[in-house]
Design brief:
single chain; alpha+beta; NADH Oxidase; seven-stranded antiparallel β-sheet; 14 helices; 28% helix
Length: 483
């Protein structure tokens, strides 16, 4: 594509994280020094291209046209097609080494800044003109970040940050296609539409691979946002709220005055049903059908003691940490456990919060229709809407407990912890002869209505059904045995 120097066009600059760059002709390496990352030496055998890279720092850098012309002067015999590919190859190499950021506009006034979110990203300007019928990627979305407006696409690992001067480009980004009803909106900004195409924000409207179809929008955004992409925002342990927000208490205060003490097993004491771990793991399976016998309070108490009880508390890194039979990242244990009871010998139907430190249930003033809806939703999630389980364990995350220490991965960690809890529930239920089944879907809004807790304070992230013991044998209820 040919660019008019007077019109907005693509350009690039060295990453703001680069503090110095130099070329050592004796060693044939390009030395790049970063502000917060380890410096690195890159293999390099072209002093002229090293000089070109040295002209890219600052807020302006060089336009793509200037880079192409400079490469053309270095290799005058190269055809236009090969020149475009050579420029792409050079820029891709720099991108893969965290060296480039991009812009669209002019060197004096960028209209938007394109920040790579991983080494996988680099615009491919050799793609050529924009084909007919392209549309904005179904993974692209717009959001606000402070005073800035961002267009993101987790599939191409890039974030487009619009400057105040570039806000008029937003309608172009959301034009339906380069032809048809949106042609007029795009026609006056062909260069920007081409920039979006080469940067991966557009896609052919009629084609999609089977593997790409498997990704829902929210899954792709969540995956990209909670994995460690080089060059992206801080991720992992950084205690970013250390000086601004007090950490949550490790154990919540009692949520009511109606306390039900539970049976427990003593440390080191095996229950009569205990078998070798290998045997339990091999026979563990989901049991969707409620037990012949209702779940009983004593079994529920022993089950919770062996899985979710708090065995100790200590301090570390500014946080209160817990010890439980199941593991959790940083020993933070942000999960809370609620029991929605449909039938349980010794316990009235209703919603209960499990206090792990006291090993007790506290009855909550939840309206019966909400409790019934939680149980019914779990039954539907198991594919048997007309057969209600004995109880549903709702796992809720107090996300601030994790986010106080971990940035960008706290929700992912909570989901991992819910998975750990589910496996722990399965193994203990199998060992005790109870009937367990994890539920793949749930309704966080129902949990909020039932408990009165705001979603940003504590939200349901997983459900697990626990039923009573099954009747074994084939001679009928009178002569069968229960386990």
């Amino acid at each position: 594509m040919t660019f008019d120097a007077a019109e907005p066009m693509p350009g690039m600059m060295l990453s703001p994280m680069i503090t110095a760059i130099s070329y050592d002709a004796d060693r044939l390496v390009l030395s790049v020094h970063f502000q917060d990352w380890p410096s690195r030496d890159l293999p390099w055998n072209d002093a002229a291209l090293a000089g070109l890279i040295g002209k890219m720092p600052g807020t302006a850098g060089l336009s793509l046209a200037d880079v192409e012309r400079a490469v053309g002067r270095l290799y005058p015999a190269m055809s236009d097609a090969d020149l475009g590919k050579a420029t792409d190859t050079l820029l891709l190499f720099l991108s893969q080494n965290d060296m480039l950021h991009w812009w669209f506009g002019t060197e004096e006034q960028p209209l938007c800044i394109l920040d790579p979110q991983s080494r996988l990203f680099s615009p491919r300007f050799s793609l050529g003109p924009v084909p007919d019928g392209v549309v904005l990627s179904r993974f692209a979305f717009m959001r606000r970040d402070g005073d800035a407006v961002l267009l993101e696409n987790p599939e191409c690992h890039a974030v487009l940050r619009f400057t105040a001067a570039g806000r008029d480009l937003l309608p172009v980004a959301f034009a339906y296609s380069a032809s048809g009803t949106a042609a007029e909106a795009v026609s006056s900004h062909q260069a920007f539409w081409h920039f979006l195409w080469c940067s991966g924000f557009l896609e052919p409207g009629a084609t999609d691979t089977p593997s790409r179809q498997a990704w829902d929008f929210h899954d792709r955004v969540f995956h990209a946002g909670s994995r460690s992409f080089l060059g992206s925002a801080p991720i992992g342990m950084n205690c970013r709220f250390k000086d601004t927000i007090a950490p949550l208490l490790a154990q919540k205060p009692a949520m009511s005055t109606r306390k039900i003490d539970l049976l427990r097993t003593h440390d080191g004491e095996a229950t009569p049903q205990s078998r070798p771990l290998s045997s339990v793991m091999e026979t563990r399976h989901s049991v969707r059908k409620p037990g012949y016998f209702p779940l009983c309070l004593d079994d529920l108490g022993v089950f919770l003691w062996r899985t979710a009880s708090v065995r100790g508390q200590r301090s570390g890194g500014g946080l209160e940490l817990l010890e439980r039979p199941m593991p959790a990242g940083g020993s933070i244990h942000e999960l809370e456990f609620y029991i929605a009871v449909h039938r349980c010998d010794g316990l009235e139907p209703g919603l209960y919060h499990y206090h792990g430190g006291e090993h007790a249930l506290y009855a909550l003033p939840a309206k019966p229709p909400y409790v019934q809806a939680i149980v019914s939703r779990a039954a539907s999630g198991m594919g048997q809407p007309d057969i209600l389980p004995d109880c549903v364990i709702v796992m809720a995350s107090r996300l601030l407990r994790l986010a106080w220490k971990y940035q960008a991965i706290s929700y992912r960690l909570s989901l991992l912890h819910a998975g750990v809890a589910m496996e722990t529930f399965y193994l203990v239920a199998e060992d005790m002869g109870l009937s367990p089944c994890a539920v793949g879907s749930g309704d966080s809004a129902l949990f909020s209505l039932a408990t009165g807790l705001p979603e940003d304070e504590e939200t349901a992230i997983g459900e697990f059904v626990l039923n009573g013991r099954q009747l074994t044998g084939t001679a009928g209820a009178g002569s069968g045995t229960w386990q």
